[in-house]
């Protein structure tokens, strides 16, 4: 309602909609995005809100206080990597660095597991976090199918004990099974370890572009700058419009008797308005407010 962004007609031109929302935080980076269009796709992982905001602040501080550009190394020190809502571990930094520098890269994500010894001498694997975008039920089914097909040896039982307190998948091993070997087999053959293919394609002024970490944050800062400038111009124009009316009312107050005489002597409001505009050099808006 303050002309902060441009508006375009919607799909059937029955109304107008904002071309872009005036977001107050970098939603594209914080919540991530994935989508497929004709001939291109995007896959941006979610990030930690505090880290992303700190990166935005660094770019602003460097420009305002130090009068210099920010390099990508500074931002990579602040934004350590994606922050997946389902937890799990990112294996290695190479994929993250490649994605942040070029806009494209593969990040290996592995479930958080723990090996426990049971009273009966067996071991069990506890899975407490799984990779992002992995369906838990389908993952358990995949493991069960591999066990039935004898493609994974050493597992006697698998059960989902997840509740409101968190995720807990139990994989009970056979007596002779080596837990670390079974776990590595699970990582290799099941969604307990996956790759997240980063593909940071976003629209910049209507054109799809591959963006690195610095580009993504910098474009958001430019967007916020544009929104704040447009909002301030709107507020200024509104204040100036009000000031213009108030100045007219002050002229009327200083000449109240003559104003009343002009209004009473006029045959209709339009003539009264015209007479006031000529006598006191008022604008149409000022004269209308006095009337």
Would you kindly provide a written description of the structure presented here, covering whatever features stand out?
The protein is built from ten helices and 13 strands. It is α+β, with helices and mostly antiparallel strands and 291 residues long. The strands form five sheets. Strands 7-8-10-9 form a four-stranded antiparallel beta sheet, covered by helices on one side. Strands 5-6-11 form a three-stranded antiparallel beta sheet. The protein has a two-stranded antiparallel sheet with strand order 1-2. Strand 7 and strand 8 form a beta hairpin. Helix 7 packs across helix 10 and helix 8 runs antiparallel to helix 9. It is elongated.
Secondary-structure topology with pairs:
Layout: E1 7-9, E2 16-18, H1 27-30, E3 33-37, E4 40-44, H2 49-64, H3 72-78, E5 89-91, H4 94-102, E6 104-110, E7 112-117, E8 123-129, H5 136-148, E9 155-160, E10 169-173, H6 179-189, E11 193-199, E12 201-204, E13 207-210, H7 213-254, H8 256-265, H9 269-280, H10 284-290
Helix pairs in contact: 2-7, 7-10, 8-9, 9-10
């Amino acid at each position: 309602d303050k002309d902060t962004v441009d508006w375009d007609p919607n799909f059937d031109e029955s109304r107008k909609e904002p071309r872009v929302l005036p977001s107050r935080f970098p939603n594209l980076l914080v919540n991530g995005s994935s989508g497929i269009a004709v001939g291109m796709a995007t896959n941006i992982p979610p990030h930690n809100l505090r880290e992303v905001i700190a990166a935005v602040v660094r770019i602003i501080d460097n420009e305002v206080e130090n009068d210099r550009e920010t390099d990508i190394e500074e931002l990579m020190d602040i934004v350590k990597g994606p922050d997946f809502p389902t937890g799990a571990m990112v294996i290695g930094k190479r994929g993250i660095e490649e994605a942040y520098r070029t806009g494209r890269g593969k990040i290996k994500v592995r479930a958080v597991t723990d090996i426990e010894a049971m009273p009966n001498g067996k071991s069990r694997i506890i899975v407490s976090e799984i990779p992002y975008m992995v369906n838990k039920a389908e993952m358990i089914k995949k493991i069960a199918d591999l066990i039935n097909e004898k493609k994974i040896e050493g597992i006697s039982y698998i059960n989902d004990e997840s509740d409101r307190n968190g995720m807990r998948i139990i994989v009970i091993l056979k007596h002779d099974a080596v837990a670390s070997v079974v776990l590595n087999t699970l990582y290799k053959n099941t969604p307990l370890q996956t790759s997240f293919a980063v593909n940071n394609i976003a629209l910049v002024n209507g054109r799809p572009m591959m963006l690195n970490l610095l580009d993504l944050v910098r474009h958001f800062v430019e967007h916020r700058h544009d929104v704040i400038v447009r909002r301030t111009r709107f507020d200024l124009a509104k204040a100036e419009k009000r000031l213009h009316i108030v100045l007219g009312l002050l002229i009327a107050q200083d000449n109240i008797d003559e104003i009343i005489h002009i209004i009473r002597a006029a045959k209709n409001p339009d003539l009264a308005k015209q007479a006031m505009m000529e006598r006191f050099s008022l604008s149409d808006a000022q004269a209308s407010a006095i009337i």
